[in-house]
Amino acid sequence: MTKPSLAALLNAAVAAVGGTERPGQVTMAEAVATAVETGGHLLVQAGTGTGKSLGYLVPALAQGERVVVATATLALQRQLVERDLPRTVEALRPLLRRRPEFAMLKGRSNYLCLHRLHEGVPRDEEDGLFDQFEAAAPTSRLGEDLLRVRDWADETETGDRDDLTPGVSDRAWSSVSVSSRECLGATKCAYGPECFAEAARERARLADVVVTNHALLAIDALQDASVLPRHEVLIVDEAHELVSRVTGAATGELTSGQVHRAVRRAAKLVDEKAADQLQTAAEGFERVMELALPGRVDELPEDLAYVLSALRDAARLALSTLGATRDKSGDDGDVVRRQALASVESVHDVAERIAGGSEWDVVWYERHERFGASLRVAPLSVRGLLREKLFTDRTVVLTSATLRLGGDFDGVAASLGLSPDDAGGEDAPEWTGVDVGSPFDYRRQGILYVARHLERPARDADRGDMLDELTALVRAAGGRTLGLFSSMRAARLAAEELRSRIPEFPILLQGEETLGELIKSFAADAQTCLFGTLSLWQGVDVPGPNCQLVVMDKIPFPRPDDPLMSARQRAVEQSGGNGFLTVAATHAALLMAQGAGRLIRASDDRGVVAVLDPRFATARYGRYLAASMPDFWSTTDREQVRRSLAAIDEAARQAAEG
Description:
Blueprint: H1 6-16, H2 23-38, E1 41-45, H3 52-63, E2 67-71, H4 74-96, E3 102-104, H5 114-119, H6 132-135, H7 141-153, H8 170-174, H9 196-206, E4 209-213, H10 214-222, E5 233-236, H11 242-249, E6 252-255, H12 256-267, H13 272-290, E7 295-296, H14 302-322, H15 333-356, E8 361-368, E9 372-379, H16 383-389, E10 395-400, H17 410-415, H18 420-423, E11 431-435, H19 442-445, E12 446-450, H20 464-477, E13 481-484, H21 488-501, E14 507-509, H22 515-524, E15 529-532, H23 534-539, E16 549-552, H24 563-574, H25 579-596, E17 607-611, H26 615-618, H27 622-627, E18 633-635, H28 638-657
Parallel strand pairs: 1-10, 1-11, 2-4, 2-5, 3-4, 5-10, 12-17, 12-18, 13-15, 13-16, 14-15, 16-17
Antiparallel strand pairs: 6-9, 7-8, 8-9
Helix pairs in contact: 1-3, 1-4, 2-3, 3-4, 10-11, 12-13, 12-15, 13-14, 14-15, 20-28, 24-25
């Protein structure tokens, strides 16, 4: 039997999803097919509109290997599972003479726990935990959420939180879900045969393609036991997010509330000696945390080292006792014990890690107005972890619209553990980088404007000249503005100022409504502007005339006092590298490339990306930042830009009227 060509398979898949084949998509599919056949690793930069999901799904399905696709956003996961995969599989079925199966898999806490739902949350007097359906007033938000979850439980086939629409609060969901540490296990739980999480794992075990998220991929890499089914091909979409997601999964935290919760849960299950020792250690930790100031901890102070050692030892003793006891107070003894074990294990592991003082970890204090102080620990780098756990015994394809920073893939490759310098020369995994371009004509569709005449921004200083420039740009654009700010303080100040200066243009501000509602309102009205910070730099997809101006208030370097970023920068410098370029400039370049990508989302989009930071034009690193962004036509002429914005606005108005 003749094997169907990749071109024939791609044509069938593109037709099935109602798209059109694009040169970049073909190039990507060919590169992915080669990587899968040879067992090599591939980095693919595929611009917006390339159709990259089919560019990797079709060649992966054609090879017949088991594939895991990991994405960063819920939107892309849904697109793959609800749209791209069903249509692609049916389109390829007659050509492949088989029907590849696919499944979605997430972490356990994303699934409804039937034991929690029917038996209630284990009692914890000081936490106020309860048989939630009796204790929560039906008219309260919590009560309404819980009753809706109970009704949904009789209808859902997946138990996946994201399938519950509209959603429920985090508090409500935590009452009906468990972490992997809290889970009784399918063989011990009365609801094991019906468990949604176990059913999802079984579907994934039998599937040819498993769609998951970066967080679960990170957990799979960090744990000794595999969470994901064995697979030959790993495809990481939105790969620019991977390092931060893995770092997040490898970050530990200790708070006074967390420690006291562990004490309460363990107290009734351990002997008096263990309970007293844990309580004393918790009180000592709380006293230290009350005096903690935000910032990095380079060397553990004597008092912190002492309380962490005491906490570690007390938690170890409690764990030993918990492992040998069973609660005899009621039918839910195993559940209570699992909850106590999970809490104490978490405290023990983080306390031991920080007390151990690894040179590969960064430790710092954070302080929140609502939650108080926390002690955090994160890996200085995840390159070694990724190299060892990700790029062994399988083909890895990493793709995103922003992987080629500063004109090449080297920076991203190094952050992923693919750099020869990190891997000892010849031992570095072999990889290939391919930029398949974009179907958009960026030089014709967009302008990159740099406000070179403005004053250099100073940290936390009010920028009157920047606000004047922003006002003039928004007015020329007729609204239609996405404002990307380096901090919430700057976004809030700009929103308040422009609301008073140009009240005819509604200004939406991140945090005043849910992000989904803000984006929906922004997309619905041409005169509306949306201002915000980090999540807007990467999370807005509004094609058409309602987003024709994207403004960046300043280059989004990490804050100089960011504990993790500053530690990483210093480590690069100590090894003889350029810490600023490797860490700070790369961080800024990635964000600016993502932010600029919000402007052109379709072939008929037009607009301006305005950078209101003169350093982009005057500093030596400006070339590196510019080389990371789409190839817009660029200018520093503010009058030219205002005329262009006014013309684009007028054309959009005429199109809407005609």
